[in-house]
């Protein structure tokens, strides 16, 4: 009673100050028998995850040996705790505990000058005392601290989102600030920045893309992803060299138990297996997915074939209580093939063999060393990369781009004091780009973009500083140097050559950033971000496809936002953000290669534009891990670019080609009990702008008209069975665009007999993806 009263007073006091109160888990008494073959004293150190129900849901060994480790393994899952709490509400927490074992010893009496020994019965050996849980340290409460300006989606939440196909990365298109190119296509404009300006990271490893072709899943097995952090702008200093948004996926830590998962769907199959070794010091994981959409695609496109696969392999080994070595190797492949038909002189129709229209492939090998320092972690890693893409109309008529890369990075994240956290790092990246054309009839790309070697190096630092109980600021600074050197001598016909001869191009960049969080009250928080970011030339998230020229300078953007977060009744969270972003010297081929720029050759790829985006983002959500969860996001925005004006030396500001004024998403999921889950999602967005043409010439106003709006419904139904403590079996039915709506993607204009443009929208679809499958976990 007294403890309850004291806690009530404690919470009330902190609430008055607007502070969040976090209480670590408290262990209940658990008896672990001293092993019969044990000798002496010993300590076993574990890292465990305690659920809001007070159960141990995951754990792995940090230190300890046999036979004591065997005794702990037999009892760890029966341990119970008072769960961690945040403001009195139970939450998930990760913590370290020590389990000491002590052997009781009986001292023999000293006997002198004994002539006759009569052996009395020995006193019974006292039973060894069971170990007590002590030394709780480094309690990490999951989901407590949110990065300013970011949104987090966990894999548990994504499972219930219809249309995401149980894939954390596919939930990105629900985020505020995200404008889809077309329905279901996993490329986005983020606050006005084209797809090539959004950075993708997996465990801080930069990757060229996150998704397979068309409507494919992500390139990482969904059960390996722990969470996804999305920053539409104002991201931390550790993420650099991108002028748009950031998508950062984090993989889950190694498991201490043998486990696996298998999934079979209509269009692909995936597996994942993991096992500990060396008495829990090491862990090995293998995962992969193989797609066979060619079984379904011919039903809709008889002369089209599509295939994809991916793989992931991870090994970790703890060489000491503070040092862990690891290797994370992964890659992905996609290919889209097409065949044509022609009619000969006899009227016979003949079909050609399949030829590749588009093929991409990338691989990454990340070797890492993690060292625990007081209050944090230091990681040093070496990453090797290989990218390869092919685009064309046959083996003898295809453009191929390749890239080889090497990155060395070091990162420090350390809590210095209770109010100060330091994050710092440095890295160097080396790229070799090779562009070649297999048929000589069109060498425009080879001439304009010769093979080259790029070297980027830089460093960053920021501090998370709580200067007052209610005020937290994150000042940061990043410095980068970008260099590029063409191989050999660039032909004189190269219209946008990087350099000639042995000359090279270099460009430095200094990116200051500032984020702030002010706790106005227990339920209301103000957030603000401001930053300058730079990026080398970019085209699109295509492996090896970074065409461009440093001689035209870096892309740069000024990003600013401010808003607030509010905690509402019924566990609802509300977030509203105003943003404005100015872009300078941006690579936006979707704009510069359009008819309104009048660019007849491939030089349009590297032409630069200025622009800006501003708007309002709104998010209302209730966690999908609740029995009734939901998500409503709305983006009201305006994205513009400057284009040549009919009058010489003048420019006009017009809507960008993928400006959508309104983007609305809502999703709701229900847990009906007995393993039944169901969810429904509604998506709506404004049509794209377009320009009318007469005799193939654009007619002002540029981008002054809109294609029809689009909306769709997605659904997911799942039935899950549990067997024992760990085994699960699930059947699910999921559908994207179950309303079979078509979408307008372009405009087709003809000149009427009166000399006026006669324009009709070009429709695709309906693009509808059914998914029926089975999922098994152990």
Notes on the structure:
The protein has a 22-stranded antiparallel β-barrel. A 5-stranded mixed β-sheet has the order 10-15-16-13-14. By secondary structure, it is mostly beta strands. The protein folds into 2 domains: 24-106 and 127-143, TolA/TonB C-terminal domain (2-Layer Sandwich), CATH 3.30.2420.10; 248-777, TonB-dependent receptor, beta-barrel domain (Maltoporin, Chain A), CATH 2.40.170.20. The longest helix is centred in the first third of the chain and has 16 residues, at 2-17. It starts with a helix and ends with a strand. Helix content is 5%, strand content 55%. The protein is built from 6 helices and 47 strands. The relative contact order is 0.10.
Write the layout of secondary structure elements.
Elements: H1 2-17, E1 22-23, E2 26-27, E3 42-50, E4 56-63, H2 68-73, E5 81-82, E6 84-86, E7 89-91, E8 93-101, E9 134-141, E10 151-154, H3 155-158, E11 178-180, E12 188-190, E13 199-202, E14 205-207, E15 225-231, E16 246-251, E17 259-264, E18 268-277, E19 282-291, H4 297-300, E20 304-320, E21 323-338, E22 341-343, E23 349-351, E24 355-373, E25 376-392, E26 398-417, E27 420-437, H5 444-448, E28 452-468, E29 471-486, E30 504-521, E31 524-535, E32 555-568, E33 572-587, H6 589-592, E34 608-622, E35 628-644, E36 651-655, E37 662-673, E38 676-685, E39 689-690, E40 693-694, E41 697-698, E42 705-706, E43 710-723, E44 727-736, E45 743-751, E46 757-764, E47 769-777
Parallel strand pairs: 13-16
Antiparallel strand pairs: 1-6, 2-5, 3-4, 3-8, 6-7, 8-9, 10-15, 11-12, 13-14, 15-16, 17-18, 17-47, 18-19, 19-20, 20-21, 21-24, 22-23, 24-25, 25-26, 26-27, 27-28, 28-29, 29-30, 30-31, 31-32, 32-33, 33-34, 34-35, 35-36, 35-37, 37-38, 38-43, 39-42, 40-41, 43-44, 44-47, 45-46
